[in-house]
Amino acid sequence: MTVRDHIMIAHSFRGEVFGPAQSLHGATYVVDATFHRADLDEDGIVLDIGRAGEQLRAVLADLDYRNLDDDPTLTGGNTTTEALARLVADRLADRVHAGDLGAGASEISAITVTLAESPVAWASYERGL
Question: I need a surface site. Which of 20, 32, 117, 122 has the fewest CB within 10 A?
């Protein structure tokens, strides 16, 4: 089951490999969060889609409309599309473990987060639970 949202951020990168992206620039990402489980629950669902969307929005709210270079919790690495996909997946996993996605989410086996930065470029990160 997949829910979708989006974020708008500013950031810069360290390292010559990033060329002009070493300067401060903005990005708008379409964010998909896919929740995996071995079988459907007794109601025929993976988990409550409304609750999943709410939790994705809550995770993204901490990043949305922010300059990620100013966030002390994100220092020490580049906030690449791949790194942000991992960050969102990890934060969603924390919410699954905390029970924020409901009792049915206890059977979630993995979360895949995809950030699309354009119609032709995106990155995904999948983590098991």
Answer: 20
User: Phi-psi category of 75—alpha, beta or left, where left has phi over 0 and alpha has psi -120 to 50?
Assistant: beta
49 Cβ neighbours under 8 A, 6+ residues apart: 1, 3
Which domains does the chain carry? 2-128 (3.30.479.10)
Mean pLDDT of the chain: 95
Task: With 0.90 as the threshold, say if the pTM is over it.
Answer: yes
Give which of 70, 69, 48, 67 is closest to 1, Cα–Cα: 48
- Asked whether the predicted pLDDT for residue 7 surpasses 90, the reply is yes
Alpha carbon 69 to its chain's center: 18
Strand pairing class (121-128; 2-11): unpaired
